[in-house]
Here is the input.
Amino acid sequence: MNRKYLCFLSGFVMALLTSFTANAQSQLSKTDSAEVIKKVLESSEKVNTVVYKIDHKKKGLSEKDTTYTTAICSLYIAPKDRLKAYHIVDQEYVSSYGKGFGYMRYDGKRAFFLKKSINSLDVYREPYIAKGKRNLEQIVYNYNFLLLGEHFALRKPSGKGDSQAPNVLITEEVFNNKAVYCITLKFEDNENARNRVEKLYIDKSDYLPAGGSSFWQWENMEEYEYYEVGYLSINPEISLEEFKVDKDQTVNLAERYKVFKEKMNNKESIN
Here is the structure.
């Protein structure tokens, strides 16, 4: 989903292809695991554009409360782009600080970012428009946990890989009433984290991500993250112009939020 997500995907793909170790009875065989990864890669490569809904919740390491986010994301996959996809994101979020809505857009050259409290959507605020590699990555970092572009830009790795890759466990489970493959990474405890586990759920019907989770602890604090993905449209006809960010780009956030709520209520795909 983000850079950490890409490292996770690349890690388990490399591990399975080059240094697979079966150490649990519930784990798929080496042959079956390799076939799952093959189909995951083939499935990701077939997606050129995608619109999905993502429900996400997270509690940061030093935070007491959980933030809940629901977003509609439209992606145009661009494997050669540093962020792997151009995107449009409508994001509604709720935390102990209140409820808000944000609209983000990225076209490979510029990023548009505007978030407001639900009670002040009609109040004018200057949007933030970023340009330049460092600025772009900084602005997208604020919401990259919602993006799946790096998954759909995955390609089969070349080379022999690292024989010390983390242990990977693949099991068959049910997630959100769906039959899935659960791909689990467990990490060794160190001075920065303990009991760290990350999971990715792959839908058996289409080999696309259905959700994921992560958990880890440090001292007397813990951080967790959980998300579910629902696909509204695979390979819809979306023009690159839809993602373009002008230097004087604007948006009516109140109207955008209205459309977002209608889309959520009607469960229809509206770009």
Q: What stands out?
A: Confidence is low (pLDDT under 50) at residues 10-25, 159-166.
